[in-house]
Amino acid sequence: MTGLPGFTVDIDQNPYLPVGGRDVSAVVTVTADDTGDAPSAPPRGGSAEIIIIDCSGSMDYPPTKLAEARAATAAAVDVIHDGTSFAIVAGTSTSWPVYPADGSMAVAGERTRAEAKAALRQLRANGGTAIGQWLQLAQQIFQTDPATLRHAILLTDGKNQHETAEELAAAITLCEGSFRCDCRGVGTDWEVSELRKISTALLGTVDIVVDPAGLAADFEELMRGAMSKQLPDVLLRVWTPQQAALKFVKQVAPAIDDLTGRRLASGAQAGDYPTGAWAPGESRDYHVAVTVNPANPGQEMLAARVSLVASSPDGQQVLGQGLVRVTWTDDEELSTRINPRVAGYTGQAELAAAIADGLEANKRGDEDVATARLGRAVALAHRAGNEEMARLLANVVDVVDEATGTVRLKKRVDAAAEMALDTRSTKTVRVRKG
Questions:
Q1: Is residue 37 pLDDT above 50, yes or no?
Q2: Where are the alpha helices (DSSP H) in 249-386?
Q3: Is residue 264 predicted with pLDDT exceeding 50?
Q4: What is the pTM of this model?
Q5: DSSP notation for 45-106
């Protein structure tokens, strides 16, 4: 179904329910227009970038770690488009602006890039790790600039040891809705769960860079992705009638992100869910589940209306819309059909949960549960054709039979392999129509 200029919204579902049926599931594919209806440049205030570098003492072990982080930051600065606001922040048990040194933002150009690189060369490793303070400084710097597209890259090599979990949580809450943040951990001494809390709340990604030599390529890719974003602050609005109740809203591609708990009421029977910034032509899938009151055979009902909404100088504008309709039937052949896209993403959500459960059980020494859950993950990855996840799982378990999920835990598991599986467990394989 084609929406208003800006986005196309397609609905995949089985539109038939059996007599007495209540549960409706639909995969909503949202695609940003790239034919000229989408804005060709960032609207209003433009875009702003901040790169946050861990400069704690551990970044000197080995010494190449901080050197590679400086080189990666310089590489990212080279990717920033002319005219884009940018800044660099250093973090230890405190934080400070590296460039510009006064805590403002520079405008990308030949001179400012050269100045930023010169400032980077002065960085040295010393001190502890208090990531919440790094985020708070980034938030303060972003507030000095009118940009509406705000994005940060955060790099660390260690755990958040020099502030409390509550202090980090408060900093994340302060930054939520203000800027997006992609998080990277270098080496294996950092905590996946800590960076995932940041990246989830700030609509970014989390990943491991095992070898510091890989930082430059990763930072360049992240910055190119950020530069492609042109439409900020897009909300997914889901309306349901009074005879229905929303069960959940999840992004399921390119990665799984449960948005249900982030609902903000936007009128009678409607709620808004954050999706972050979009690039022209970008496409994502969402799984929407609704419970409805049953009706008689032949009766049709609008179970949900899904819209894409963005702020504009004239208020909020609907950029695309799709409808989830259901009809009750006593034809068993119609009502028992399984929509392959709904089934595919349900399986991949189960895969991510199985990996999380298995790794957690392994950490606490429960080998039986770890084997069972990771074995289930192997079977689900095989069924979904998720070759990347199957490869990552094979680094943690010995696979006896992938179809049945028969596995044995490896006696020795490389920490990097386990962290790579953890950080990438929510990435999905796109389930296409047919």
A1: no
A2: 332-335, 340-363, 367-384
A3: yes
A4: 0.94
A5: T-EEEEEEEE-SGGGGSSTHHHHHHHHHHHHHHHHSPTT-EEEEEEESSSEEEEESTTS--E
